[in-house]
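Q: Hi! First time asking for a complex rather than a single chain. Here are the components, and I think there are four in total. Is that enough to go on?
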Amino acid sequence: MAVVLSSIQPPGAADADGSAPAFSPLYRQIKARLVRELQGGVWKPAEAIPSEHELAQRFKVSQGTVRKAVDELAAEHLLVRRQGKGTFVATHAEQTVQYRFLRLTPDAGDSLPMDRRLLDCIRLRAPSDVARALALKAGAAVLRVRRVLLTQRPVVFDEIWLPAHLFKGLNAERLAAYEGPLYGLFEAEFGVRMVRAEEKIRAVAADADTAAVLALAPQTPLLCVERLSFTYADSPVELRRGLYDTRHHHYRNVLN
Amino acid sequence: MAVVLSSIQPPGAADADGSAPAFSPLYRQIKARLVRELQGGVWKPAEAIPSEHELAQRFKVSQGTVRKAVDELAAEHLLVRRQGKGTFVATHAEQTVQYRFLRLTPDAGDSLPMDRRLLDCIRLRAPSDVARALALKAGAAVLRVRRVLLTQRPVVFDEIWLPAHLFKGLNAERLAAYEGPLYGLFEAEFGVRMVRAEEKIRAVAADADTAAVLALAPQTPLLCVERLSFTYADSPVELRRGLYDTRHHHYRNVLN
DNA sequence: AAGTGGTCTAGACCACTCT
DNA sequence: GAGTGGTCTAGACCACTTG
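A: Yes, that's all I need. Here is the structure of the assembled complex.
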């Protein structure tokens, strides 16, 4: 299809209004273009994208320039390179790393294959804080999923808020039927791929309901992890509040 | 000084024992070499390292190969590039980003210029858990620093463990005298640069002592953040246990 | 104007996977 | 052997900083 980048900015081009020129190198324009195609679903999760050689021809640039664009996308985990095989669209459904976003680890022993227990999935009007976080109109329809993650004893109580219009038809039945991580279901069934997330972490005391669900004494200190997940265009698509029992687990983080 | 990489591995070289060949590209060998020089203190924090052009000549490789090595070191925050000026050894003492490793943020308002109050700094034999974390012999001499960080009210109670042999002469007086982040002092006065850290986070209830220090009710849920910091060769050089009051602050994290 | 990092090219060759 | 990503080169030119 021999596409030419129609909007290439000549290196020295000034802005219309004379403000910061915002020089954007070629490889970034190509990167943006690739992101747009990913966003548009041109290549589905786990599929291979065209080879660097072919992309270079399409975009009429050298392979090195394509390479640099793909390098950045791989660093951001939007793409995965596999030498000798190709470059693939990243996916949460992959068996290798389950729960890429869950940073909970047992204090002793190996990392956890946790079981899930679905509590409920209902449709609601968004509370104001949820609407704000998800950039929805006040009172917009949302789905609220509640569930427990457990090893032998319950460890995590999750409350998940999703914009209803993006997840039409999601219900308790389909949730219960699906094996594997939730984010795998989201990308396979609804074409919503989680790309990035921000978490806010606090310590709270367990209220009566939470204590019952997690089978522990009221007032037990819990980790409260509020996660806002984003898809391609930095648009928020999931708000999740998790309460973690950290008596035998901890949240692990790496600082660079 | 026209150094040649004496230990260059020819691309196809097999291991002596025939095990995994562990092919290491040129740019990684150069990267390792640069790390060694950083570790050895050839270039001090905030100093410029030689230009890419010069490094390329020294190592007898092309500039692009040096570039790739430096790229990775910049991504790991060991070096900082500044276009038109040069490449510099990263430092914690820089005014721009105070507290690079502190992820605590106020729930509302801008990020925090926090005051410090030193509680004490004493020399002890390492408790077994501390010795283990810092890879010291049981009972080795360590320094324990305790302090409080506060905005208006106290927010963080830190307990910091350091191997005494690396921080000879550190005492309450010098700690009190130093302005700026602790890690700045460590690199300026003791040549110990924190490069990377791992944190384990839990929720705990405030004990009586902690409650007194942080001026809150006993049993208040607190974030317990245990940080192990590493210097260049992945050797642990600081263990820090922080108790965070998260009633008006939160620990923020980004997942990619 | 000189020096630095940043981009881009064209081409060679290597390492890995699959057929 | 063919196709893919990965490394390396030599050189040109651009963007930014400083004298």
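A: Residues 11, 25-27, 61-65, 68, 82-85 of chain A lie near DNA strand C (CB under 10 Å from a C1'). Let me know if you'd like any chain examined more closely.
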